[in-house]
Amino acid sequence: MSLTADAVVIGGGVHGTSIAWHLAKRKMRVVLLEKKFLASGGTGKSTALVRQHYDNFVESALTHASWKYFVNWKEIVGGDAGFVQSGFIRTVIPKEIAALKANIEMHAQIGISTKLISAREVQEIEPSWDVSDIEYAAYEPDSGYADPQATTLAFADGARDLGAKIRQETGVLKINVRNDRVVGVTTDKLGDIAAPSVIIAAGPWTPHLLKPLGIGVPITCERHQVASFILPKDVQTRVCCIDGAKEMYFRPEGHNLILVGCGVGAKHVDPDHYNEGIDEAHIEFTAERISARIPKMIEGQSQGGWAGFYDMTPDEKCLLGELPVKGLYINAGHSGTGFKIGPAAGLCLAELICDGVAKTVDITPLHWSRFAQGKKYFGDHPYSTSWHTGHTEKAKGES
Ligand SMILES: Cc1cc2nc3c(=O)[nH]c(=O)nc-3n(C[C@H](O)[C@H](O)[C@H](O)COP(=O)(O)OP(=O)(O)OC[C@H]3O[C@@H](n4cnc5c(N)ncnc54)[C@H](O)[C@@H]3O)c2cc1C
Of the chain's two ends, which shows fewer C-beta atoms within 10 Å, N or C? Predict the structure, then answer.
């Protein structure tokens, strides 16, 4: 006899477990299937910045709605997401200051606590930084970072407590469709599971699951590295930062470490077989980059690092919503920034599935069909610099 559920969730990262928790909260009978173990994908490799600064409305609104979970985690979900309210700074190059100001205004309208600060104020917050290339930055005192594994496990534990079944080491082989309606999945260990709703939160494996249904989604897989350094004794750095001016991001870890990400990632990697370690040359490259912002880091010591993957889309925004098969939903393609919107993306999908419309945030700009229509979703005041745009590498003649 095959199993039945109201909803099957494919993937046990932050997104799959969030959706499972939100649907279980709506009293749905949920089965979550994870082919390896919880947080074994991109989630487990995340640096998990929870900043609210984006150059588009939808991601900022989703992050702000998620931030409310992180600051009240115990009361809302239970357990501990390891959220540290460190503050966050976004730097830009001088020609992007107008965009920075416009984006800060947009964020304030959403309700995000944010303000424009001068280079002098940046220096007051972070005395160890060299701010000579900065004129203005955005500052979010309430943002920070979380623990990605703890967040995922807290959602999974909460979902179990609400009656959801979480099955690890159980892969979905096939999504079953009849008359343009999803009817369930076929698994490698549990046979068929019948369900009127199936949610795919399978990161870079998503295209593989959809191809047999004739649905193409432009998600590719890139390898990205994170370097870890011991701070010299007399250096402290408190905030998380997306340093557009130096094309990197960094955040503190524990009492004396700093994690730094930068550089263009290797494209089209196989998420099942890739080098999860950090390259020696990349440590040196990253050390130079962070020393340009925090000069004393020249005395910092490498603690190695790791590599994870980003599930990239052409506009670097996720696919969130219903697919062209009734009852089949997608939440994937987070392009290296999706951890922080885990809570609100799960909430919005639960609203869509249970109420027919996502009320917390209008997610229609993230609908999968934008790519089929040749469209991309960008904000009104986009930045050209990020931490993986690679302008600096190109300027140095590297690939
Ligand atoms: C180095 C690095 C740094 C990052 N830093 C940040 C950051 O600072 N802030 C931020 O917000 N985001 C960050 N991200 C991005 C963020 O971590 C991801 O966008 C997010 O975690 C993706 O979660 P997910 O649940 O969609 O996918 P994943 O965590 O990849 O989960 C997908 C799961 O699906 C499972 N699966 C696949 N196929 C099947 C199948 N057929 N059957 C069953 N299970 C299946 C996989 O095993 C996997 O566990 C970073 C990512 C990396 C790699």
Answer: N
Residue 399 confidence (pLDDT): 29
Tell me which H or E stretch contains 175. Answer: strand 172-178
Structure-token match 């357990």, residue found: 79
- The DSSP 8-state label assigned to residue 324 in this structure reads S
Residue 9's identity, in one-letter code, is V
pLDDT at 398 exceeding the cut of 50 = no
Q: Residue 193: helix, strand or coil by DSSP? A: strand
45 lines ligand 1 (CB under 6 A): yes
| Ligand 1, atom 50, residue with closest C-alpha | 46
Entry pTM: 0.97
10 lines ligand 1 (CB under 6 A): yes
Please state the atom number of ligand 1 nearest to the C-alpha of residue 14. Answer: 25
Residues 356, 327 contacting (CB under 8 angstroms): no
pLDDT computed for residue 300 by the predictor: 95
Mind listing the pLDDT tens digit for each residue in 172-219? 999 999 999 999 999 999 999 999 999 999 999 999 999 999 999 999
Using the mean position of ligand 1's atoms as its centre, give its distance from the Cα of residue 94 in Å: 33
Cβ 338 under 6 angstroms from ligand 1? yes
Sheet holding 301-312, edge to edge: 115-118, 136-140, 88-91, 240-243, 248-253, 257-262, 220-230, 301-312
Ligand 1 close to Cβ of residue 379 (< 6 A) = no
Cβ count within 10 A of residue 298: 12
What integer pLDDT is reported at residue 122 of this predicted model? 98
**At 368, which amino acid appears?**
W
Q: Does residue 49 have its Cβ closer than 6 Å to ligand 1?
A: yes
Domains and CATH numbers, the chain: 3-45+149-219+315-372 (3.50.50.60), 87-143+220-312 (3.30.9.10)
| pLDDT tens profile 214-247 | 999 999 999 999 999 999 999 989 999 999 999 9
Residue nearest to atom 48 of ligand 1 (CA): 41
| Residues 294-305 pLDDT 10s | 999 999 999 999
In this prediction, residue 391 has a pLDDT band, given cuts at 50, 70 and 90, of low
Pocket residue to mutate for ligand 1, from 222, 334, 341, most atoms within 8 A of Cβ: 334
